[in-house]
Design goal:
- By secondary structure, this protein is mostly helical.
- The protein has one domain.
- The protein contains four helices and no strands.
- Helix 1 packs across helix 4.
- The longest helix is centred in the C-terminal third of the chain and has 31 residues.
- 40% of the residues are buried.
């Protein structure tokens, strides 16, 4: 795992969290809350997908050495975006349940 993958997962996770907040406005945590939850979820989702799929192990040696493996970048974007959106909605649901109690 390199720093580039981590940054992609954090940034795309934040984008995914804010997209989830816009898509489901009643579950939005606000811009800052969506960004933080999304970034954490993006990192977690990206790492989980990396463990499941093996971190782009099928990449050629040249692509892996240069850090420009498009498959790994797509994997980071997918895991980060989905993870960010999911964690944002989960946090919003927990927050809503705690406020009702």
């Amino acid at each position: 795992m390199d720093i580039t993958s981590l940054l992609i997962q954090l940034i795309i996770g934040a984008v995914g969290g804010n997209a989830a907040g816009k898509a489901v406005p009643d579950k939005s945590l606000g811009t800052l809350g969506n960004t933080i939850a999304g970034a954490i979820g993006g990192l977690g989702g990206g790492q989980l997908l990396d463990m499941i799929l093996g971190g782009g192990a099928m990449a050629t040696d040249a692509a892996a050495a240069s850090g420009l493996d498009i498959g790994a970048v797509i994997q980071d974007v997918a895991g980060g975006g989905i993870g960010g959106a999911v964690l944002t909605i989960v946090v919003a649901l927990i927050k809503g349940a705690m406020n009702k109690g």
